[in-house]
């Protein structure tokens, strides 16, 4: 499964990069395949391990902010691995044609 999520503190002002970095650090330390862009962090793995990472990432932000917003989107497709790379490669292949 691939989960794309965004976690942000609420009530701390406009500059949230430091808080978001705490969440991304948790994802990167998980050892699961992941990718971060301007809007979301995507992480790939089995249900329990991915959801555990999301939970810990939220907790990292929550430790410094009393209120947290979480947006999550999941692609649940058993048996598929390396989806973070292969899905993008498929689109790029069509664009090259």
TrEMBL record:
Thiamine-binding protein domain: residues covered: 3-92
Q: Name one Pfam family in it.
A: Thiamine_BP
Which superkingdom is the protein from? Bacteria
Against SUPFAM superfamilies, the record matches this protein to:
MTH1187/YkoF-like (SSF89957)
Gene3D superfamilies xrefs = 3.30.70.930
Entry's family note = Belongs to the UPF0045 family.
Q: What is the name attached to this protein's record?
A: MTH1187 family thiamine-binding protein
Q: Which organism is it from?
A: Streptomyces salyersiae
